């Protein structure tokens, strides 16, 4: 399934269908040299340049009316260094292909998000993350980066080479240059045991600190209009492998989580009054299960039901209070929300614009089925998140601007100063970056 659509008219659309762009031209460079040449030519023609991945962002972070770079030919593993425990991969490589290739080599990333359709550069540039007590964001696993900057030159950075660029460019939202290769830290492949079980909202929130502390990876979903949650604990395991059975896997992951869920959302969109009843049924449909498998088969799952999403990182200590406020708001409103609210955690990291920069964080993600009006719900949720100094995911719907970010990111000025140095003419700018970083 292609996640980006490029019509004959040259219109680019994102996965959710809420962002479109009409670039002057599209380029699919087959090498870093060709990409550098495309950036220089864009400069000669006075055009902006943006690279797109698979369109899994809900913001217009990659949209441009200038030159659109498609990285589908810049894929594959460049080298594996087993001694250093690293893999260097071309920027256009989809995470799912990286995961499979690494598994074949007996290697794995330490942590990952729950979707693996994105390119490695798109996922890291927007701060994509999983959940974890000790690890979460994919960008925090980066050991080195190669990027083409505004003058077409190739710049490499790591903790020892251009460390100031490295501190910012791991999550660069496309503002500092076009990432061409990423070196990730990897480890020998391991097994995870996943334990999924229903739990009440009151119990999850009351026991959250213990659940977080006792598990390497803890996350849960709350079903609005109910007091029900589904929890998931992933912990390393000595084995043996016990994958989800083919039939039960199909029933849980395809039939219930995608097929029936899609049908329920279609019904909810047509008749919003049915949503609370559907939510009560959905929240009880998934039963407890335990399985053990290699990391990417546990961390990731297929997402075929299209939606629009907003996600904010709040200080981890503020999670329970924030979530209770969100539940109270939904309970008291006339909103009808058919998608569960997803909650994950991340440890503090040292990346300038990471949503977990300098603070232990918890993520709250709200979703609405594609084609359903989401503004009222997202606006009310955002009011709660920002009251707790929340930081929105760079690739998900939000209304914040540079003034707000300067307050909630201690190193915001460090990032914008670096942007001034690397892209003084704003070759990589677009409307979204003007809003979130300033002009």
List the helices and strands and how they pair.
Layout: E1 5-6, E2 12-13, E3 20-21, E4 25-27, H1 32-44, E5 49-51, E6 67-69, E7 77-81, E8 86-90, H2 95-104, E9 107-108, H3 120-125, E10 142-148, E11 154-158, H4 163-169, E12 178-185, E13 187-188, E14 191-200, H5 201-206, H6 208-214, E15 217-222, E16 228-237, H7 246-270, H8 275-285, E17 289-293, H9 295-299, E18 307-315, H10 319-332, E19 341-346, E20 361-369, H11 375-387, E21 391-392, H12 402-408, H13 412-422, H14 431-437
Helix pairs in contact: 7-8, 10-11
Briefly characterize the structure:
The protein has helices spanning 32-44, 95-104, 120-125, 163-169, 201-206, 208-214, 246-270, 275-285, 295-299, 319-332, 375-387, 402-408, 412-422, 431-437; strands at 5-6, 12-13, 20-21, 25-27, 49-51, 67-69, 77-81, 86-90, 107-108, 142-148, 154-158, 178-185, 187-188, 191-200, 217-222, 228-237, 289-293, 307-315, 341-346, 361-369, 391-392. By secondary structure, the protein is an alpha+beta fold.
